[in-house]
């Protein structure tokens, strides 16, 4: 039963799990902990369900290209109608039609949480077959542009989207995907020379464009130089052919461990592996879909004070440079011996990172949702009448 003193907020996605780091941990918990909102998250089932502060409504996962995905918005609509939200926050273009339906029929305020530039992602990654990419990309962008006038507000997960996207107009707030962790979880980097094992980590989405194969190549070359090196690959892979290629590459290499499931790995598990690691690997292939974005793992590694190898992409290099957090390299032309010496000799985190934590984003989120909730709108109307 919904709390009559609280506004109801529903946060939904088609592909994200109910314990997704952004939907649940950041947006959901921030709203719930304010004490002003009853918060529900709708998404794919997860291994860990926690209904203490944010109510989770899981549905059975499905393949990325399947009938299950086609009908998922209808299932989400039925769940959402039962919950009767005052504010509906949706994290994918696939729920645009549902959001507009809620706006028109239920007077619900709607927020589009833009986590990706879908047009560029579809064109420049391998998620869809090559022949279909232009048509799918154009359809998605047309849908976003035509429905924009119905959206009450947009959250943009990247500052770069201000330049890349025109359809939000001036009704947007940049809510970056910064890391939410406890101060007690942060540790100082350990010296590598005396360690029995040197643990590398590649976390997040496992695909060619995120650089998983570059990460494997780096780990193999470093292991040849020093057999203390280990690599953990942890994340979600939606492409069976990519996952099979990863498994074939690491099969004869016992120093590489793969942690992957048929659904996204719980974020708490990724954080545990980050805390056990000595170096992270940020090895993206730079293309239009990523060039103006800051990878979430960059915030995570900085937040945990984990040193990392970083591809030579100027905006990322400039972001990390003040903290002495990274060793810069070019995946196409690098010398493993030079990387090894730098990893052993450099001092990292001579300055503590600032501005990488979720605490800087939470007030902006709360301000927008408060303005859209019924209590605020009614107060504004009363004030106008009294004038």
Write the layout of secondary structure elements.
Elements lengths: L6 E11 L3 H13 L3 E8 L10 E5 L7 H17 L3 E4 L5 H11 L2 E6 L3 H7 L8 H15 L5 E4 L4 H4 L7 E3 L23 E8 L6 H14 L3 E8 L3 H11 L5 E6 L5 H9 L3 E4 L13 H8 L4 E4 L2 H7 L5 E4 L6 H10 L16 H11 L1 H13 L1
Parallel strand pairs: 1-2, 1-4, 2-3, 4-5, 5-6, 6-7, 8-9, 8-11, 9-10, 11-12, 12-13
Describe, in plain words, how this protein is organized in 3D.
This protein has helices spanning about 20-35, 65-85, 95-105, 120-125, 135-145, 160-165, 210-225, 240-250, 265-275, 295-305, 315-320, 335-345, 360-370, 375-385; strands spanning about 5-15, 35-45, 55-60, 85-90, 110-115, 155, 170-175, 200-205, 230-235, 255-260, 280, 310, 325-330. The chain has 14 helices and 13 strands. It is globular, with a radius of gyration of 22 Å. The protein has two domains: about 5-175 and about 360-385, Glycogen Phosphorylase B (Rossmann fold, 3-Layer(aba) Sandwich), CATH 3.40.50; about 185-345, Rossmann fold. Strand 11 (about 280), helix 10 and strand 12 (about 310) form a beta-alpha-beta unit. The protein is an alpha/beta fold. The mean pLDDT is about 90.
Structure characteristics:
387 residues; alpha/beta; Rossmann fold; 2 domains; 7-stranded parallel beta sheet; 6-stranded parallel beta sheet; 14 helices; 13 strands
Global geometry: globular
Count of separate DSSP helical elements: 14
Fraction of residues in β-strands:
15-25%
Helical fraction equals 25-40%
Read across the widest sheet, the strand sequence of neighbours is 3-2-1-4-5-6-7
Distance between the termini: 37 Å
Secondary-structure class: alpha/beta
Radius of gyration in whole Å, from Cα?
Answer: 22 Å
């Amino acid at each position: 039963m919904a709390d009559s003193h609280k506004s109801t907020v529903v946060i939904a996605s088609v592909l994200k799990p109910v314990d997704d780091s952004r939907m649940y941990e950041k947006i959901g918990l921030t709203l719930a902990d304010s004490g002003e909102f009853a918060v529900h998250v709708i998404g794919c089932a997860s291994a860990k369900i926690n209904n203490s502060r944010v109510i989770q409504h899981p549905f059975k996962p499905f393949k990325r290209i399947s009938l299950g995905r086609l009908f998922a918005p209808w299932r989400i609509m039925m769940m959402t109608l039962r919950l009767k939200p005052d504010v509906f926050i949706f994290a994918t273009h696939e729920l645009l039609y549902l959001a507009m339906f809620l706006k028109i029929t239920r007077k619900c305020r709607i927020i589009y949480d833009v986590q990706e530039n879908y047009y560029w992602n579809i064109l420049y990654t391998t998620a869809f077959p090559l022949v279909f990419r232009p048509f799918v990309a154009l359809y998605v962008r047309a849908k976003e542009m035509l429905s924009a006038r119905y959206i009450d507000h947009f959250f943009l997960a990247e500052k770069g989207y201000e330049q890349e996207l025109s359809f939000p107009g001036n009704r947007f707030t940049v809510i970056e995907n910064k890391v939410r962790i406890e101060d007690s979880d942060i540790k100082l980097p350990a010296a590598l020379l005396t360690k029995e094992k040197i643990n590398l980590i590649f976390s997040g989405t496992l695909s060619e464009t995120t650089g998983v194969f570059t990460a494997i190549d780096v780990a193999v070359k470093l292991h040849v130089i020093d057999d203390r090196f280990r690599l953990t690959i942890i994340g979600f892979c939606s492409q069976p052919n990519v996952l099979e290629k990863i498994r074939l590459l690491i099969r004869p290499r016992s120093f590489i461990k793969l942690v992957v499931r048929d659904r996204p790995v719980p974020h708490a598990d990724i954080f545990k592996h980050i805390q056990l690691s000595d170096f992270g690997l940020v090895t993206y292939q730079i293309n239009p879909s990523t060039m103006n974005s800051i990878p979430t793992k960059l915030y995570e590694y900085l937040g945990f004070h984990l040193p990392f190898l970083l591809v030579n992409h100027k905006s990322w290099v400039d972001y990390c440079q003040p903290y002495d957090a990274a060793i810069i390299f070019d995946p196409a032309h690098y010398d493993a011996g030079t990387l090894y010496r730098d990893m052993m000799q450099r001092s990292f985190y001579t300055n503590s990172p600032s501005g990488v934590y979720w605490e800087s984003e939470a007030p902006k989120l709360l301000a927008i949702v408060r303005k859209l909730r019924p209590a605020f709108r009614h107060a504004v109307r009363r004030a106008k009448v009294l004038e």
